Structures are given as C-alpha cells and as structure tokens.
Amino acid sequence: MAHGTERTIAQSTAAERTRELRTRADLLGLESLFSAEELAFRDEVRGFVDEAIRPHVADWFERAEFPRELVREMGERGYLGIHLDSPGCPGRSAVEYGLASLEFESADAGIRTFVSVQGSLAMGAIHHWGSEEQKAEHLPAMARGEVIGCFGLTEPNAGSDPSSMETVARRDGGDWVISGRKRWIGLASIAQLAVIWARTEDGVRGFVVPTDTPGFTATVIEPKFAMRASIQCEIELAEVRVPDSARLPGAEGLSGPFTCLNDARYGIMWGVLGAARDSYETACSYALDREQFGAPIASFQLTQRKLVDMALDIQRGLLVAERTGRLKDAGELDPVQISVGKLANTRDAIAICREARTILGGNGVSAEYSPQRHANNLEAVRTYEGTDEVHTLILGAHLTGIPAFNPPREG
Predict the structure, then answer these.
(1) Based on the structure, what is the number of domains in the chain?
(2) Which residues form the Acyl-CoA dehydrogenase/oxidase N-terminal domain (predicted)?
(3) I need a labelling partner for 239 at 20 to 30 A (CA). Which of 35, 120, 300, 397 fits?
C-alpha cells in the first residue's frame, strides 16, 4: 500500500474500513465462488452477529457466560440445524451452513460451538438415526430454539478412542438402564434433551434422554482458559431409565456418532476461518493506526510480511472449505476430506491468531482486542471433534494404507 492509501483507509469509518480491508484481502476473488443466494444468507448472518453478538462477546467471555437469551431468536432466524432437511428444519445447503459457521466464529468459537452442538450433533443424531416419530417430536422444537440438546459421547477415559467407552446401557424389561459418565459435553447443564451413546450387548447405541430423568446430572466444568462464552459439562448417569422408544433405531456401532462428528468437523473447517479473519482484520486495522518511529507500523516490512502470510493462509483455507462444501452438497464427500479441512484450517487459524496478537504488541493481551481470545478458543477447537494427531493419523492411513492408531507393542 502507498502511504496515501494507508491514510485514506485510516480516515474511513469503522464499517467502511472493514469492507475495504476485507475486499483487499480477497486476493483471488473468492467471493465469486458463491451464489447470490449463498451470499445473501451469509450477509444476513453477518448482520445478526455484528448487531447481537460482537459488541457483547468479550464481556461474555470475561464473565464465562453463554447468551442463552439469543437461542430462541437464532431458531426463529433459521440458524439451528441449518443444513438438515428433516421436518421443521431450515434445509439449507452445506455451503450455506459453512458460511454461517464462519460468521458466528468470527465473533467467538463459543457461539459457533452452540450452533454446531445443537444442529450437527444433537439434532444431527436424531435426523440421521432417529425414527420418524422421534424426528417429528424433537426436531421442529429444537430448530425453533425451544428445546436445547447436547451430545454425550466423550468420557473421562475415552476421548480420542471412543471404542473404549465405559458407559453401558442394559435391557430391563421394556426399558433401558444407562450408567456411566461423560465429559466435555457442550450445553449439558441447560439442555432439555441429551443424545447419549452407550455400550450394549449388541454394540454402541444412541439414546435420546430427557435431562430431567432421575439419575441424570450435569455439572459445569470451570474455570476454563478457552470457550468461556460456551458451556461444557461432565454428565453422570446413575441408573438412568428410559423406554425403548428413546433408542435411536438407525444407529448401530460407532458409525452412528461418527456421522454426526463429521458434520460438526465440517462446520469447524469453516468456523476457524472466521476467527482467523477477525484476527487478521483487527491486526491490519491496528497497524494502520499505530505509529512508531514516525510512521504507521503497517508501513514496516516485517508487519506487511505478517499480514501477507495471514491473508494467504485464509484464502487457502477458504478454497479448502468451499471445495469440501461443494462435495458435501453433491453427496460425494469422503470423511478423509473432512480431516483435510479440519486439520489444515484449524492449524493455520491458530497460527494466524497468534501472529495477529504480535502486531498488537502489549495491547494484544487486552480484552479490548480479539486475537488472543480467538487463539485461546482455538486451543479447544483443535482438540475437540478429533485432535490434530487423530486427523493426522486418519490422513496418514489414507496415504500409506497402514493404520497407525494401534501400533504393535514390543514384548
């Protein structure tokens, strides 16, 4: 940028500056990859985020508060179960879901996580594996935000290895009795419904459990360094009794929860780009205003290199996400391809947020600026729905044909 251009951007309004920086950062013209309908939906979500979420999210993060009051409005706007075509659900495309995820996480990963847990995991499990009666009973109310759901898979001793699940469900007449513990379960303390995965004599099965069922207890995990504008819990299931009608009839084995996890992982590859974009824009805007040695630091070579690297990585990540979304909408997406986006985009996004913080200098650790908050959140995002290591091994097995999850032991 020429010095005069810097001054022009610096003198514009905040909204004008954001548009200008965003336009300049679209180095490959990727906006043209999306249809008018897709962009209109994205802009609608963006407006909601800018008005209802962004001004308050730093305070929610500081106070470890999830804005439950927004849930109904998000449902009314069609933001819950965005990509599901079951009764009462919005039925939008995977690409539209991805664009919405990007906008929600540009404010905070905790908000995007709510959309993911509600729509991809809890609603997704019922959509993919539920009976027609279960779909009709639960999904419309969940899509409207009248009922909040959670998804109980991860356990204290079974994170990356769900095959070691210890929660069990046993038959007792016409009922099932579920016992065990789940950990890091989003929304569990405010949810009315929990999709619980448990081991049975016939393998892993899923159950829709009302959270007011005797024996169901959700305890909020706190304090946390990340995802503070979200809720994660430990669930205890002490002889929780549910009728057979609570069982998800289509879910057999670990393919049941993994299908839902893949939907959530797909949303993550888009969402993390929102955190990266917001961090880039914050750093670039700051660099245009901050003067040292008689010039804006945006004019320094090292700062420009940092900004260039960030913009390039965001553009590459968006190409990965858009291509993956098109494959998903066409019904041609391989789960291995989801691992590509989840691993690469999350890894790049956290690096972008950290680098953006360096441009802010000491001010970067202030809650006034978003990059450090995004970086903290991404430490959790890179861990849940499959760690970096798990997705690396998924891709390694694909490339070599040799699964390395259970290497042979010596002796």
Answers:
(1) 3
(2) 36-146
(3) 120
